[in-house]
């Protein structure tokens, strides 16, 4: 699903939208001044605005506190990622932009992880509004090899032998203490 479709093609650029003369202009001129003919930079700017508007709670919010500004940053990164995804569908061999997209994905994932830890409600709202599927990172799992299994078994065996030696020493010390205590009691009697 292309996110460029989110932008209506007949939507005029912001600077031309409110001009009174636009109602009398020919369709060809409207098309030239629309987002369909806009540069990638202009389309990106409109996309960012739309996504930030989705995240914004009320019209007065301008990223005043940390969490909301974090949500805005996630929205801006999402816009960049979606634009780069569309670009890479057309130009699959473009390694430079693929790298930029992966870097942005990583930044967004880290920000979402932080937002999830700090304020889960804002995190959920942001993910829902921006249509993001967040999956937490997998816990580190060591690759099991034969060498590692043997080493682990040896370590466990050594640990158990050490525990047996310590247990024997503790038992010997306890018996000596009990013998001293018995001798002291006998002396007192």
TrEMBL record:
Residue spans of biased composition, Basic and acidic residues class: 176-189
Entry keyword Acyltransferase: no
Q: Which GO terms describe its cellular component?
A: mitochondrial small ribosomal subunit
Q: Where is this region: Disordered?
A: 170-189
**Cited InterPro entries:** Ribosomal_uS15 (IPR000589), Ribosomal_uS15_bac-type (IPR005290), uS15_NS1_RNA-bd_sf (IPR009068), uS15_ribosomal (IPR052137)
- Provide an example Pfam family for this protein: Ribosomal_S15
Recorded GO terms, molecular function? RNA binding; structural constituent of ribosome
Q: Does the keyword Mitochondrion apply?
A: yes
Principal place of residence: mitochondrion
Name the UniProt key words of this record, in alphabetical order: Mitochondrion, Ribonucleoprotein, Ribosomal protein, Transit peptide
BP GO annotations: mitochondrial translation
Tell me the domain of life.
Answer: Eukaryota
The protein's location, in the record's own words, is: Mitochondrion
What SUPFAM superfamilies does UniProt report for this protein, alphabetically? S15/NS1 RNA-binding domain (SSF47060)
User: What PANTHER family does the annotation carry?
Assistant: 28S RIBOSOMAL PROTEIN S15, MITOCHONDRIAL, SMALL RIBOSOMAL SUBUNIT PROTEIN US15M
The family this protein is said to belong to = Belongs to the universal ribosomal protein uS15 family.
For this protein, the record's NCBIfam families field holds: S15_bact
Q: HAMAP family per the record?
A: Ribosomal_uS15_B
**Protein's UniProt name:** Small ribosomal subunit protein uS15m
């Amino acid at each position: 699903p292309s996110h460029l479709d989110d932008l209506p093609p007949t939507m005029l650029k912001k600077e031309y939208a409110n001009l009174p003369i636009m109602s009398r202009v020919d369709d060809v001129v409207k098309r030239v001044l629309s987002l369909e003919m806009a540069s990638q930079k202009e389309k990106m700017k409109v996309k960012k605005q739309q996504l930030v508007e989705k995240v914004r709670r009320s019209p007065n919010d301008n990223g005043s506190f940390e969490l909301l500004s974090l949500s805005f940053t996630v929205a801006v990164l999402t816009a960049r990622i979606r634009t780069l995804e569309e670009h890479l569908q057309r130009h699959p061999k473009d390694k430079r932009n693929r790298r930029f997209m992966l870097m942005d994905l990583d930044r967004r994932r880290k920000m979402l992880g932080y937002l999830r830890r700090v304020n889960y409600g804002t995190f959920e709202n942001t993910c829902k509004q921006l249509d993001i599927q967040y999956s937490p990172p997998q816990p580190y799992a060591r690759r099991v090899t034969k060498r590692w299994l043997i080493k682990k078994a040896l370590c466990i065996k050594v640990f158990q032998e050490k525990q047996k030696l310590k247990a024997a020493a503790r038992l010997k010390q306890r018996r000596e203490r009990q013998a001293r205590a018995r001798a002291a009691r006998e002396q007192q009697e």
